[in-house]
Specification:
The chain has one domain (about 1-85). Helices cover about 45% and strands about 10% of the residues. It has helices spanning about 1-10, 40-45, 65-75, 80-85; strands at about 45-50, 55-60. The chain has a two-stranded antiparallel sheet. Strand 1 (about 45-50) and strand 2 (about 55-60) form a beta hairpin. The longest helix has 11 residues, at about 1-10. This is glycerol-3-phosphate dehydrogenase.
Length: about 90
């Protein structure tokens, strides 16, 4: 997507780039060693504080949908995000 955007900007601006695209060889932070099933670890090991029906703040498990979102959005950095969010 970034490559397409840059190519469009080059074309529309009639620019002459000095080198070719290098984004194909760049790895996104959190992408190294990513496992699509890693959300299960987040769901099992991390808690979040939530309000009970009586109004008390109690620890609860991270919802599996939230764990999946963190895992897909942050990759191998998802555990760090979960620690901050705890």
């Amino acid at each position: 997507m970034a490559e397409d955007s840059v190519n469009l900007a080059i074309k529309s601006g009639k620019l002459n780039p000095s080198n070719s695209c290098v984004t194909q060889n760049l790895q996104i932070l959190g992408g190294d060693g990513y496992d699509p099933a890693s959300f299960t670890i987040l769901a099992q090991q991390y808690t979040r504080m939530k309000k009970s029906s009586s109004g008390k703040i109690v620890p609860g498990a991270i919802d599996s949908a939230v764990a999946k979102h963190l895992s897909h959005a942050y990759g191998t950095m998802a555990e760090r995000v979960a620690i901050i969010a705890q």
